[in-house]
Backbone:
C-alpha cells in the first residue's frame, strides 16, 4: 500500500473537518449551573438517599403477569419511561478542601458517552437538571458530532428514570480524577443532594486548565473579568473585550483574562490581536493550557503541520493523559511531515487513551502509518475497525477501496502478515 492508496491530502482535510469546533471545546468559562445546594464534609459522594413518601395500604388483588405485546402492538409506557427533570445538587472540591479556582463542568456519562450538564459556581456548588443542558459547552474529549449538538442544542428536554441505567455523574477537569456518583436506580422524587465530589490530581500532569494567577488578581480586575464572562455567554464579544482590557490593565499577569481577551478578539476575526493576547497569557502563566490549545487551533486553521506538531507537543508535555485528541494531532502532523516513527508512537498513545474509540479516525491514521511500514495485515485491521465505528464517514467509499486493495495484497503475499514489531493496542 503505497502513496497511490494513502492520501495525505485527504487525511489533512479529514483532520481539519474533525476538529472544526476544537477551540470552542476548550473553553469552560462561566457556569450555567451555580446552585443553592452545598454539602459539608469531604471524601467520596455518598449514595443518594430516597426521600420517604407515604405508602398507602394496597387493596388485595390477584397477581398479574406481564403482557407481551403482539407484533406491531406498542408497549404502554410506564412511570419510569416518562422524561422529566431529575435534579442533582452538591459541591465539587479539590483534594485540599478548597473550591476549584475556575468553574468545573459536570458530566452525565451513560454507557461511556459523556454529556455536559452544567458548571459549578465560584464556590464549587452546583444544581443541575439532568437532560436540560442548552447552554453547556462541550468537553474536548468528545467527538465532533457531540460537540456540534451541544454547541447548537435543541429544545429543553428531560430524562427518564429508565435512561439512568448505566449512567454516572462526575466532575471533569483535565489532569484530575473525579469521584463518581452512580445513578442507576435513582428516582425523580429522590433527594437531589448528592454531597461532595472530590477532584484529585493525576500523576505526571504539570499543566492546568485554570490559571493559578487568578487567585492573586485584585478585586477590580476580577470584577471586570467576571463581567466579561457574563457578556461572553450572551455572545457580546466586543463588549466583553472592553472589560477584559480593563482587567489586564489593572493586573498584567492575569493569565485567564488575557486568554479570554484572545477568545473575544478571535470571535471578532481579529486573528493577530488574538494571537498576541494568547501569547501574553502564556507569558503570565506558562502552565495554563487554554492559550496553548487556542494557538494549536490557529495552527490547524492554517494547516501548518510544523506548528501543529510543535504546539501539540507543548500541550502533551503539560498534560500527557488528558487529551487523547492532541496525541492524534501530534501523530497526524508528524505523519504529514514524514516522521513515521514519531507518528506511530503518538498514534499508539492516542489509541491507548481512547479505548472506546470516540475518535475513530485514530484507527484510520494508524492504518496509514502501518501501510507505510509494510504491515499490510495490521493496516487492514485498523481500516476495517475505522469503518466499523464510523460506517457513514465522509471518506467511507475511499476507505472501502483501500480495504479492497489491502485484502488483495495480503492474499497475494504470505509475507504481508503482521510486522513482528507491531505492538498490541
Residues:
Amino acid at each position: 500500500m503505497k502513496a497511490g492508496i494513502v492520501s495525505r491530502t485527504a487525511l489533512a482535510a479529514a483532520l481539519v473537518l474533525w476538529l472544526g469546533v476544537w477551540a470552542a471545546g476548550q473553553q469552560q468559562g462561566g457556569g450555567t449551573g451555580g446552585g443553592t445546594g452545598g454539602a459539608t464534609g469531604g471524601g467520596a459522594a455518598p449514595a443518594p438517599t430516597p426521600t420517604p413518601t407515604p405508602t398507602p395500604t394496597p387493596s388485595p388483588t390477584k397477581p398479574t403477569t406481564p403482557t407481551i405485546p403482539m407484533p406491531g402492538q406498542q408497549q404502554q409506557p410506564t412511570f419510569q419511561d416518562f422524561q422529566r427533570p431529575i435534579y442533582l445538587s452538591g459541591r465539587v472540591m479539590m483534594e485540599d478542601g478548597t473550591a476549584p479556582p475556575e468553574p468545573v463542568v459536570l458530566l452525565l456519562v451513560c454507557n461511556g458517552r459523556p454529556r455536559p450538564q452544567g458548571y459549578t459556581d465560584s464556590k464549587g456548588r452546583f444544581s443541575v437538571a439532568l437532560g436540560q443542558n442548552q447552554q453547556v459547552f462541550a468537553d474536548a474529549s468528545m467527538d465532533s458530532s457531540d460537540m456540534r449538538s451541544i454547541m447548537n442544542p435543541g429544545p429543553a428536554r428531560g430524562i427518564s428514570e429508565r435512561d439512568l441505567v448505566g449512567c454516572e455523574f462526575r466532575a471533569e477537569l483535565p489532569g484530575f480524577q473525579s469521584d463518581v456518583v452512580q445513578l442507576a436506580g435513582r428516582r425523580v422524587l429522590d433527594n437531589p443532594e448528592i454531597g461532595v465530589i472530590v477532584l484529585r490530581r493525576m500523576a505526571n500532569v504539570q499543566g492546568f486548565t485554570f490559571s493559578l494567577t487568578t487567585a492573586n488578581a485584585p478585586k477590580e480586575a476580577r470584577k471586570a473579568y467576571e463581567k466579561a464572562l457574563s457578556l461572553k455567554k450572551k455572545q457580546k464579544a466586543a463588549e466583553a473585550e472592553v472589560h477584559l482590557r480593563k482587567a489586564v490593565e489593572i493586573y498584567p499577569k492575569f493569565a485567564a483574562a488575557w486568554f479570554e481577551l484572545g477568545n473575544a478578539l478571535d470571535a471578532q476575526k481579529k486573528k493577530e490581536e488574538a494571537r498576541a493576547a494568547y501569547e501574553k497569557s502564556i507569558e503570565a502563566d506558562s502552565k495554563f493550557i487554554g492559550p496553548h490549545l487556542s494557538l494549536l487551533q490557529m495552527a490547524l486553521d492554517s494547516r501548518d503541520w510544523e506548528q501543529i506538531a510543535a504546539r501539540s507537543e507543548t500541550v502533551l508535555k503539560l498534560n500527557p493523559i488528558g487529551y487523547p485528541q492532541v496525541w492524534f494531532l501530534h501523530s497526524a502532523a508528524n505523519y504529514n511531515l514524514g516522521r513515521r516513527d514519531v507518528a506511530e508512537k503518538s498514534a499508539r498513545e492516542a489509541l491507548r487513551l481512547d479505548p472506546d474509540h470516540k475518535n475513530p479516525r485514530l484507527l484510520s491514521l494508524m492504518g496509514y502509518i502501518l501501510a507505510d511500514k509494510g504491515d499490510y495485515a495490521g493496516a487492514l485491521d485498523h481500516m476495517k475497525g475505522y469503518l466499523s465505528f464510523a460506517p457513514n464517514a465522509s471518506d467511507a467509499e475511499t476507505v472501502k477501496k483501500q480495504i479492497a486493495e489491502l485484502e488483495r495484497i495480503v492474499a497475494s503475499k504470505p509475507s504481508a502478515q503482521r510486522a513482528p514489531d507491531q505492538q498490541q493496542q
